[in-house]
Each structure stands twice: as C-alpha cells, then as structure tokens.
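Board work, copied verbatim: ABC transporter permease
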Amino acid sequence: MSTMAVEDVAVAPVDQGFWTRTRKVGAVLLALGLLATVLFGALATGEQARFTLSEDSAGAALKIDGTFGAILFGLVAVAAGVTMLAGLPKRWFTLVLGVGLVGFVLSFLCWQVSAAPAGQNFMPLVNIIRGTFFLALPLIFGALAGVLCERSGVVNVAIEGQLLMGAFSGALFGSLSGSVWVGLVAAAIGGAFISLLLAVFSIRYLVDQVVMGIVLNLLALGITGFLYERLMQTNAQKYNSAPRFSNWEIPLLSDIPLLGPALFRGNIFLYLALLLVLVIHIALFRTRWGLRTRSVGEHPTAADTLGVKVLGLRYRNVLLAGVVAGIGGASYTLALYSFTKNMIGGKGFIALAALIFGRWSPTGALLAALFFGFADQLATYLGAINSVIPNQFLAMLPYLATILAVAGLVGRVRAPAADGKPYIKG
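↓ predict structure ↓
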C-alpha cells in the first residue's frame, strides 16, 4: 500500500512552464486589483466610509476617505497579484490570495459605503457578521452532511432534499405540538428519511448515486409542496405556525466587542453548528470511527479485509448525515421563517460546493460556508443602502461566488478515492 502511494505521488502531474496555476491566479488577481484601483477609486466619493463596531451607526467606527480607501485597498490586491506572478512558494499561496481578495472586497466596499445616500454611508459590522453566520447555517449543516457521506464513499447530492424535508417536518410537527423540541426531532427524522432512501437505493440496489440524489431532491420538493398546499395554505394557524427558538446569550462572551454580540447572542442552531464542526472534525481525524470511515471512503476492499463492516458503516453514516442536514433545515422554520414551497432555494447545492471548496474537511466546509454566507449578506446590505448595482445582479451574487470559488480557487482537489463507487462484497 505504501509503495503504491509513493509511486502515485511520483507520477502525479505538476504545473509545467511559466504559466503555473499560481501565476494564472496572480494574473487574475492583478487584473482585479487594477480594476478596483482605477474604477472603484474613480466611482468612490470623498465622503468617509464608516465601518461601525456596533449594530447601527452609533459607537466606535473605523473611518477612511472613500476615494483613498478604494485606491489603497485596490493597490493591496495589485501587490498580491504581482507577488504571485513573481513566483510565489506554494506554502504562501492561500495567505497571499486571501490578502488580495480581502483588498479587492474592501476597495469595493469603500466605493459602495462612501457613495451611499446621506445617513446610510456606514456598514454595521456586528450585523454583517451576525447575518453572515445566520445565512451560512444551512450551508454548514448541509456541508457537514456531505462530509459524513462522502468520507464514507457515498455521494450526497440529496442535501437540498434533506434540508427541505427537515424544514418542512420541523414546521409541521412543531406547529401541531406547539413545541420547538418536537419540531427539532421531527426535522432530524425528516432529513434521515431522505438519507434512508439514498442509502437503500445506492448501497443495497447500487443505483447511480448522483442520479438518486437528484431524484430524492425532486421527491422532497414534490412531497413538501403537495402537503404545503393541502395543509399549510388552507390552515396556516394549525399547520404552519411553529414556535421559535429564542436567542441564548452567553455571559461574559457576549460582551466581547464586535464578535460577542454577533456570535454569543444567537439561537441553538448557531451553537450547534459550531459544536458539530468541532465534534465531527475530532471524530473524523482522531478516533477509531473516523479512521474506519476514511478507510471505507478510500479503499473499502482493504478495510473489509481488516474486519470493517463497510456496508453497515456506510448505512450509519448516511443516516447520520440526514439527521444533521434535517436539523439544518429546521434552522429556517424553527428560528425565523414560516415554511414556504421550495424555501431552501438551492442552498443544498451551495452546501455541496462548500464541501468541495472545503476539501471534504469539517473546518474547511465551515470556512467555505461562511464565505458564501458573507456573499449573501453583502447582497442584502447593498440592497438596503440602495446600491447602484441592479437588484438582479445582487441576487446572483451568492451563486456567482459559488461558481468562482469552485472553478477558480479550489484548484486540484481529490475526493475520497471510493466516493460514488458502489461496494460489492466478494
């Protein structure tokens, strides 16, 4: 096994010639930096761009002249691009890319905030951070569900259906019982139901896993849409008025400037998402279960010869993934919204992108989900300050960020070797 691994590494393809991946990304980053410096600098105004450390315009704030800030941060992106073009060591790639992208975003924000109407030329950072985490919650749960499945060798395209069934079950049974906890358990069972179908047809009957995932998404959409029209639309008071989880404030931590009000005055879903990221990461890389899961996802035949029950482990992990995704769906209907048809709106597919962007790692999935959540929150903020950017483009922003991240930033990534490959025990 080790000899084969060494040989695989030795023959792995590498970048050839001048235009390595680092230089290509550097060229794009340089172009973005020049765009920010010239265009954003020209469109920004001399008004101050204020980034307040609170939930409104009051209190302490970071201030910078709009034009100066747009040009300054644009030049930061230019410098990052030039550094990459000069031939950057691979170990610095992520850091320099991050600095360049942050510079581009800050240049853009200096333009937008300084050009906002009078009285609106500020960005409340607490609200931005809180909104980012809130919008990222279903993505975090969905991406974790993907990690559990795909690390076990089962492709989970059904995240959308698991989230949707969880949201519907939480709303319906939470409304009927009048209990948020009953709704939460029902949401977990709803997500597990979709996962059970995925497991049975993919593992037992060897149906193509991608096709099965798409079918299950359509099944969840049809079931929830039909019951919504027959029950919830006709009697919303009885079937679609679930109670909400209240926010829980953590003493001392909630008083930390900026991060405290945003992170430690949230509901159970925020704390549970962060806890699950930690627990799954430790379990996956530090426990016997995690070792067996990863071995089943990489080389199920070898795992089987060592006594690991491959099919049983895949069944359990796929069902567990459904529970996690179902709870993520409940973060909609037991925290803020009433259920509506197709309310997930493609977030399951963005969660799948976060899984790939995060390289099939719980912590990577968290960071990727926050990236997409920030794009979504930024679109909301720009709409609130009457940005000159058309609303249709703002609505596209989270999905554009998804495409750019997966196509342009991920680079070469390798899924678990047995991902999507059915295992037939000899």
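Strands lie at 48-52, 61-65, 122-124, 248-249, 265-266.
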